[in-house]
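lol forgot to send this yesterday, sorry. struct tokens for the thing we talked abt
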């Protein structure tokens, strides 16, 4: 069964999903790793998700590997981890600029890479039922829509 892909321009913290992805770029030279962070949620917490998936991406790990290849590997790692942890719904922002936590748009290329990786994950992993990509602003949302229209979904 394929996962439903949803594009939104909303606050990722307000989505009622099983897990949010929190990305952290690091200078540690190890492969991208995802881990489940057990964050106790108080009744007044700003996020709605049950779990937080922390993703560490090494920016300087392998000089012969492009940043896009590292980002694609990070997406695969997150989806594989989520599938193995029996997570059904996941929400994430487009991975791209090193300062991805800022409110700046990812480029068209990064949005295209995100769509390709999400599309691949939607058919590869059996436990994932919903993957939500959250755009930070209108421009990024338009890039995602354009990229989605150019990808053949199965």
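and heres what i got for the seq, position by position
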């Amino acid at each position: 069964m394929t996962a439903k892909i949803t594009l939104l321009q909303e606050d990722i913290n307000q989505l009622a999903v099983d897990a949010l992805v929190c990305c952290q770029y690091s200078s540690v030279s190890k492969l991208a790793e995802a881990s489940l962070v057990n964050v106790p949620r108080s009744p007044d917490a700003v996020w709605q998700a049950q779990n937080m998936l922390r993703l560490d991406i090494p920016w300087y790990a392998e000089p012969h590997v492009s940043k896009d290849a590292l980002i694609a590997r990070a997406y695969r790692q997150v989806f594989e981890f989520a599938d193995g942890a029996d997570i059904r719904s996941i929400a994430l922002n487009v991975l791209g600029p090193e300062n991805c936590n800022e409110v700046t748009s990812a480029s068209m290329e990064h949005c295209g890479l995100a769509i390709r990786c999400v599309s691949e994950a939607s058919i590869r992993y059996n436990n994932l039922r919903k993957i939500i990509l959250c755009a930070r602003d209108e421009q990024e949302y338009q890039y995602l829509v354009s990229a989605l229209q150019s990808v053949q979904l199965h």
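The domain at 4-150 is CATH 3.40.220.10 (Leucine Aminopeptidase, subunit E; domain 1). anyway ping me if u want another try
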